[in-house]
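Design job #97: recover the sequence.
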């Protein structure tokens, strides 16, 4: 099990990648949270670029943690969840400023977890924690290894427990990871980042 990394400031950002089956995984993950980690949580969930998303509203109905679509230039705040909007890459800068980009697709998708994870690896190094959940394809695998190479922590949903194991399997094949866990254990891990006396 992970140490309470975010409590002692050894963690600066949490990032989560998901695709097919990911909405249900995110609902389960955040559903029991009464407060988020004491750092920003950034989420890339592959969404159709042709439709306005309501994922932020759907997640918000299930959790007490504030959930919003990320905005370009916004300063990411601790305890909040920021979703990459449809058809925009989500990046983060060293000072916690969020950036949105409409540059070319990566792994045929935009937003791409690889872009987010790579930006986190560049600016946060060993203070980054990234999670790869259910999804098809291999998005997140390369970026997760960049995080691992920079000293950060990579957690992968156990493929046997994922609705769609493609993304977790691709991350495992790309190189070493720190933890392979079922979703409920990932939930426990992220909850452990929060001081017990901050939850109500």
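Job complete. Output follows.
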């Amino acid at each position: 099990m992970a140490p309470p990394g975010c409590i002692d400031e050894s963690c600066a950002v949490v990032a989560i990648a998901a695709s097919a089956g990911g909405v249900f995984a995110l609902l389960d993950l955040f559903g029991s949270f009464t407060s988020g980690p004491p750092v920003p949580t950034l989420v890339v969930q592959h969404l159709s670029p042709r439709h306005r998303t309501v994922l932020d509203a759907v997640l918000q109905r299930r959790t007490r943690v504030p959930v919003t679509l990320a905005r370009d230039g916004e300063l990411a705040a601790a305890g909040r969840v920021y979703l990459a909007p449809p058809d925009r890459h989500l990046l983060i800068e060293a000072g916690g400023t969020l950036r949105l980009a409409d540059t070319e697709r990566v792994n045929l998708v935009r937003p791409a977890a690889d872009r987010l994870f790579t930006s986190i690896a560049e600016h946060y190094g060993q203070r980054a924690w990234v999670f790869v959940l259910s999804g098809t394809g291999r998005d997140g695998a390369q970026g997760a290894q960049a995080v691992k190479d920079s000293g950060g922590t990579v957690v992968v949903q156990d493929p046997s427990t994922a609705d769609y194991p493609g993304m977790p399997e691709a991350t495992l094949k790309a190189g070493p990871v720190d933890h392979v866990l079922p979703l409920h254990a990932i939930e426990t891990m992220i909850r452990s980042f929060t001081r017990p006396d901050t939850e109500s």
